[in-house]
Amino acid sequence: GPHLSSTGEVKYFCLLSTSASYWRGDENRESMQRIYGISFPEKEQLDEYLKFLEEARERDHRTLGPKLDLFSLHPEFGSGLIYWHPKGAIIRKIIEDFWKDVHLKNGYQIIYTPHIADISLWEISGHTGFYKENMFAPMEMEARAFQLKPMNCPFHILIYNTKLRSYRDLPIRWAELGTVYRYEKQGVLHGLLRVRGFTQDDAHIFCTEEQIEEEVINVLELVSFFLGKFGFTDYKIFLSTRPEKYVGSPDGWAKATTALENALKKKNMDYETDPGEGVFYGPKIDIKITDCLKREWQCSTIQVDFNIPERFHLKYTDKDGSFKTPILIHRAILGSIERFFGVLIEHYKGNFPFWLAPEQIRILPISERHIPYAENVMNNLSQYFRVQVDRRNEKVNRKIREAEEEKVPYMLIIGDKEEKSGKLALRKHGEGMLGTFTPDEVIQKLKELVVDR
Q1: pLDDT range class, residue 186, cuts 50, 70, 90
Q2: Is 303 a catalytic site residue?
């Protein structure tokens, strides 16, 4: 410093928080107190920022997740590891089933691979040389060293190499919801957004050099489709180029970068260049989605790889009978299930779209004598929706209040009047009563919310 020539330049400010800090970051030095604050030239700007912070706190997935019984963390038994509760797990299943269905319809095949492998696999792939600091320590077993996988790609490559491929087989598109493990530093772990064990919505495309642009275009279209279905239509695109530490030739990197640029231009997608931020084996496209608070989140990535196929001696027979090395495209659309789920929680403030809600309808019988009819209604509706009956001996107002707090999208209230008329009192979360409807009318009304997910 100083950062300002005079404290008189500081206008409207607010102190935000404090934390302990070691002198020069050395834990063997003196402990000091760090004070965080913010300053703006206009009071309105400060007020707007403080309002943003309050809204962000209310949306924090680390608070909403446990409150809504979606997930928990148990750092005393391992930091950065997620425990999915039944409600969170059903949302995850819905996302994964949707993901698989769409991929199968778009020419992908689903595969599954192990969680560990002999460390020699990672030596061939180059991960031990370029990524070791992010990998868990190897496990010594049977006089061999086994490594938890930080990536899925070497496993997909091994499957490719189980037989000789022809140019007629390409492109090959293999998709996997593969769990990987990365040793993130303790200080950067953050709820679902930065973890040590997570499931990537991974896919690898083996293709010829001539097929790269078309395949990347197809992936870009798939990204737009998926993000749109989950409510994200505003995002920024970055093209990341060769870093200081890399494998392969500059010529190969130039070809891969050009292929990505051409695909973006053909789709008329605006992008920014992010120099030196590519992964060690190739350039990439990163897509950052913008949530309702205008915060950016890294999710989708597309990477063209001319290097790893050569390291594993991948081949295919070309039209003239010669052997050629295929191009490998790495891609993830959601990024990881954990991170994307955290973003969804904060974007929707826990008020998930109807098709994603873990409990779509809760039936609230006013008294115990209404439970049999409520269960008949549940049996009818559960053919189409995720429905529960609140059988507790509690006042109906309390049942309503708790269903609202748990962000259940719709409630059906059943008393003497409803049972006698054969109708249901329908209430919507956050809005109140919508009126009375027959069970068939409720089914028709709510089915419209899931038909175009």
Answers
A1: confident
A2: no
